[in-house]
Amino acid sequence: DKDVCVIEVENTQKLAGPLAQAFAGDPAENMAIIGITGTNGKTTTATLVYQVLSACGRKASLLGTVHKRILDEELDSKLTTSDPIELAADMKKMADAGSEYLVMEVSSHALHQHRTDGFDFKVAAFTNLSQDHLDYH
């Protein structure tokens, strides 16, 4: 069909994040994103950073294994790091709510699967590495 546009890409996983961010209006550009990865300690570290920012009067949101927080609103979370489309949608809600900071847990699987492509981290923290992840990577 001549009216259908086809764009061929080498790796759709690498393109999903940038496209999702663009369709959501590039919400990640409006926040300082702090990513925390490692075998253990992601939830504790991310929660502590979120709490420190909030206690200092900063407008912070959180994405993690246990829950999501858009400022003070707590929501259920399904994965440590969501797929690019859900990430962009969550970031849009956070940016629209006035979040200055996003603290997020980032699984090593998510990094390998390009789920965080499409936005930059202002700060990246690595907690540790153990045998659990050496089997996958």
Compact description:
This protein is of the alpha/beta class. It has helices at 12-23, 42-55, 84-96, 108-112, 131-134, and strands spanning 32-37, 60-63, 67-70, 73-76, 101-105, 123-126.
Write the layout of secondary structure elements.
Elements: H1 12-23, E1 32-37, H2 42-55, E2 60-63, E3 67-70, E4 73-76, H3 84-96, E5 101-105, H4 108-112, E6 123-126, H5 131-134
Parallel strand pairs: 1-5, 1-6, 2-5
Antiparallel strand pairs: 2-3, 3-4
Helix pairs in contact: 1-3
Structure in words:
By secondary structure, this protein is of the alpha/beta class. The protein has one domain (12-134): Mur-like, catalytic domain (UDP-N-acetylmuramoyl-L-alanine:D-glutamate ligase, 3-Layer(aba) Sandwich), CATH 3.40.1190. It is built from 5 helices and 6 strands. The chain has a 6-stranded mixed β-sheet with strand order 4-3-2-5-1-6, sandwiched between helices. Helix 1 packs parallel to helix 3 (84-96). The radius of gyration is 16 Å and the shape is globular.
The CATH fourth-level homologous superfamily = Mur-like, catalytic domain
- CATH class annotation: Alpha Beta
Termini gap: 42 Å
Q: What is the chain-wise order of helices and strands?
A: HEHEEEHEHEH
Structural domain tally: 1
The name of the CATH architecture is 3-Layer(aba) Sandwich
- Pick out the low-confidence regions: none
DSSP summary: helix tally = 5
Structural shape: globular
Main structural class = alpha/beta
Number of extended strands: 6
Main pleated sheet:
6 strands, mixed
The CATH topology is UDP-N-acetylmuramoyl-L-alanine:D-glutamate ligase
Mean pLDDT: 93
Provide the spatial order of strands within the biggest beta sheet.
4-3-2-5-1-6
Q: What fraction, in percent, of the residue positions are helical? A: 25-40%
Strand content: 15-25%
The gyration radius over C-alpha positions equals 16 Å
